[in-house]
Write a structure and sequence with these properties.
The chain is mostly helical and 68 residues long. It folds into two domains: 30 residues; 33 residues. 88% of the residues lie in helices and 0% in strands.
């Protein structure tokens, strides 16, 4: 019985955490907040870093794709 309540509490806590993150992401993605200079630089920097990380991961895990 205790295992069930622990699992339920873990599910509840994780769903609440994801719900809070979803609210923060929705707030960040509003157009008028995105167009301020600091947020625009932050978002573009994050997107550039994500692109480079995906490029590096492609090179590491699929080296035959690029044929260097």
């Amino acid at each position: 019985m205790r295992e069930i309540s622990m699992t339920q509490s873990l599910i509840y806590k994780s769903s609440y955490f994801l719900w809070k993150i979803k609210g923060k992401v929705k707030e960040l993605l509003k157009i008028n907040k995105l167009l301020t200079k600091e947020k625009l630089f932050l978002v573009s920097g994050i997107l550039i870093l994500m692109g480079w990380m995906s490029f590096i991961l492609i090179i590491v895990f699929y080296p035959n794709i690029l044929n260097f």
